[in-house]
Amino acid sequence: MYQDLKDKVVVITGASKGLGRAMAVRFGQEQSKVVINYRSKEEEALEVKKEVEEAGGQAIIVHGDVSKEADVINLVQTAVKEFGTLDIMINNAGFENPVASHELSLDNWQAVIDTNLTGAFLGSREAIKYWVENDIKGNVINMSSVHEMIPWPLFVHYAASKGGMKLMTETLALEYAPKGIRVNNIGPGAMDTPINAEKFNDPEQRADVESMIPMGYIGKPEEVSSVAAFLASEQASYVTGVTLFVDGGMTKYPSFQAGRG
Ligand code: BGC
């Protein structure tokens, strides 16, 4: 646990499930004040709120689509109105929708970019604006992926969104470092979350992905939420502009394991 996270106000986008949900609960354990953003799953968001409260935190739920500017503005304003300030912005909402690149429609491309990249930009911008205006040393955590560095056929829009996020984060980190505002990415690998449920519930596909992970297993959401708590805390006070990969070694060229090559 990180003492300084107690009573901190943290907004988490896409927090009704998956990594967002795990982070919400973790910040609840830290006794933070958690703003749970969701797009379509109100009932699940209410369950997460209960879990956060049971864990020892406070929580509200706020509906909003992060690809819509007005929704993101409302999200940050609601956090400030309800909890008095904003300390940590976690841009987590994202999705993937695979298709061969030569058959990818503009609508599909745009939808993934709008949520994964533009949504993270809007969340960062609104949070940083508030911090600059109020002289607050806040911090942004963007949920990137191993695919900010690993190319991924059939997922060109997803990989482009995460590759874009890498330089967005580095640029914002550089731009706002003089104000004490930190901006970092978490780069998860293959995790046991709803986004992957279909793939990983199939033993063959699961084993195939596991063979690409030097540590040999699919990660648990709690292995990401613990990193989010660290990055948000004062323990990471000198860390900005990095991507912390949480991937069991997936980004380390596993095909070269055991001296192959
Ligand atoms: C994707 C997962 C995938 C993992 C490793 C993540 O960003 O969301 O679907 O299993 O990367 O390839």
Automatic annotation (TrEMBL):
Gene3D superfamilies: NAD(P)-binding Rossmann-like Domain (3.40.50.720). The keyword Membrane does not apply. InterPro entries: NAD(P)-bd_dom_sf, Sc_DH/Rdtase_CS, SDR, SDR_fam. It catalyses: D-glucose + NADP(+) = D-glucono-1,5-lactone + NADPH + H(+); D-glucose + NAD(+) = D-glucono-1,5-lactone + NADH + H(+). It is an enzyme of class 1 (oxidoreductase). CDD domains: GlcDH_SDR_c. One of its GO terms (molecular function) is glucose 1-dehydrogenase (NAD+) activity. The keyword Iron does not apply. Its EC number is 1.1.1.47. This is glucose 1-dehydrogenase [NAD(P)(+)].
